[in-house]
Design a protein that fits this description.
heterodimer, A: alpha+beta, DNA polymerase, domain 1, 2 domains, 5-stranded mixed sheet, 5 strands, globular, B: alpha+beta, Uridine Diphospho-n-acetylenolpyruvylglucosamine Reductase, domain 2, Uridine Diphospho-n-acetylenolpyruvylglucosamine Reductase, domain 3, Enolase-like, domain 1, 5-stranded antiparallel sheet, 11 helices, 14 strands
Chain lengths: 156, 288
């Protein structure tokens, strides 16, 4: 089947199998391996991407559901070789250790800040509650997102 | 995994696609459960009929004395809906506790019902709301009480290879009524409920005019604690009366020993705690 979508701002057409999941199309057919597979059952958030601005777990998301939609992955977050404010804040706060969960956290954080640019700490915690991290203990991640929101607010 | 993936434009076309494939095709909405069932060999269908792009099935609306929720409506939308939060709060709370944000963004309330699991948060709330489900098939469309959707654990009386559910509906809570949702789980997110309970309480002149208590998973389907409801109905909602009702709910509950969810004895004891908390909360909210 032909899947057509706007991927990180560019039109993409790709031939897929009807049963392909979005993460398989991204990683195996399009070579975008920034989106990670960990649990493979929608329980950990490592595979989080945005479809029409909404966070979804791409490991349980039939790829055809993205047909005609706008898809954003971690590869589309940085612009012109410059880290996005959220990414820079993750670096500055050591919000990443092994790093495997980080793309998913960045995408969940972006989904949150895109609709709620000044979240409370509780709203940040709720926004990333679908993402698991086994290294950091989450505090640095919440700090990073809080700081990113502040920096993005100053930039406006 | 699948041979084809189809997007019908109408309910009629969806039903025709199912019929054309003679049991090999089935309805898919969000797919958050179905994808895993397919991967695990628990779903024989190889043609997916995706109903999420059919116009007119995505509304949350109040009309003719009912709140109606279309089959495309996700848990996230229900949790955030001002109408549901105001007039059926228990459902907003239940849908807001499903999985994590990503699951709630994709998974639908109707899918939660069709999967027919006794712990399904949204379905447990719908039992307390005495919801009805609109079934569409070759015979047309009709509304059935939600309890009739359940044949057993994970077994829906709806055959998704032949039929689909177009919507659910229920009466909004009246003035002087309130609801509450309590959930026991290992974590606050991404955790299956060890137990959950949804209650609706109506107060009139200081006594309970309406009491509904739904509990999961303590039976093959979401469970209404009728003895407990009857014991509190017509009574002033004193702490003693609430405790008595909660005890009756725990006595009637029949949970299994579960590696995932804990022992039968523990969970029976916790039914009393959760029902007491939920009733107390609903009664407090219903007080003028």
């Amino acid at each position: 089947m032909l899947l057509e979508m706007i991927l990180n701002g560019k039109s993409v057409s790709v031939e897929i199998e009807p049963g392909d999941l979005l993460v398989q199309v991204l990683r195996e057919r399009l070579g975008l391996i920034g989106t990670k597979i960990a649990c493979g059952e929608g329980e950990c958030g490592a595979c989080t991407v945005l479809v029409d601005g909404v966070a979804v777990t791409s490991c349980i998301y039939p790829a055809m559901k993205a047909h005609g939609r706008r898809v954003e992955t971690i590869e589309g977050v940085a612009q012109d070789h410059e880290l996005h404010t959220i990414q820079q804040a993750f670096v500055d706060h050591a919000a990443s250790q092994c790093g495997y969960c980080t793309p998913g956290f960045i995408m969940s954080a972006k989904a949150l800040l895109d609709v709620n640019p000044q979240p409370t700490r509780d709203e940040i915690v709720a926004g990333i509650s679908g993402n698991l991290c086994r290294c950091t203990g989450y505090y640095q991640i919440v700090d990073a997102i809080e700081d990113a929101a502040r920096r993005m607010g100053e930039g406006r | 995994m699948w041979q084809n993936y189809l997007f019908p434009a109408t309910v009629q076309e969806a039903l025709e696609m199912l019929a054309a494939h003679g049991g090999q095709a089935r309805i898919i909405a969000g797919g958050t459960d179905l994808v895993l069932q397919s991967q695990r060999g628990q779903c024989a269908a190889t043609v997916m009929v995706d109903i999420t792009r059919i116009p007119g099935l995505d509304a949350i609306e109040e009309r003719d004395g009912y709140i109606t929720i279309g089959c495309q409506v996700t848990h996230a939308r229900i949790a955030a809906s001002p109408l549901i939060r105001q007039k059926a709060e228990v459902l907003a709370l239940a849908c807001g506790s499903v999985g994590g944000p990503q699951t709630r963004n994709v998974g639908t309330l109707v899918g939660n019902v069709v999967n027919a699991l006794p712990a399904a948060d949204g379905a447990v709330a719908l039992f307390a709301l005495e919801a009805e489900v609109e079934v569409a098939d070759a015979d047309g469309r009709r509304w059935l009480p939600i309890a009739e959707m359940y044949a057993g654990v994970g077994e829906c009386t709806i055959d998704p290879c032949v039929q689909m559910v177009a919507a659910v509906r229920f009466r909004p809570l009246s003035d002087g009524w309130a609801s509450a949702y309590q959930r026991l789980a290992n974590r606050k997110a991404l955790a299956l409920p060890i137990l959950n309970t949804a209650v609706v309480v109506g107060l009139e002149e200081g006594v309970c005019s309406e009491v509904r208590i739904a509990v999961g998973p303590v039976a093959p389907t979401p469970f209404r604690a009728r003895e407990a409801e009857a014991a509190l109905a017509g009574q002033p909602p004193t702490p003693e009366a609430v405790v008595r009702a909660a005890r009756l709910a725990a006595e009637a509950a029949n949970p299994r020993d579960s590696v995932l969810r804990g022992s039968r004895d523990y969970r029976k004891a916790m039914v009393e705690v959760l029902v007491r908390r939920a009733l107390t909360e609903a009664v407090t909210k219903a007080m003028p």
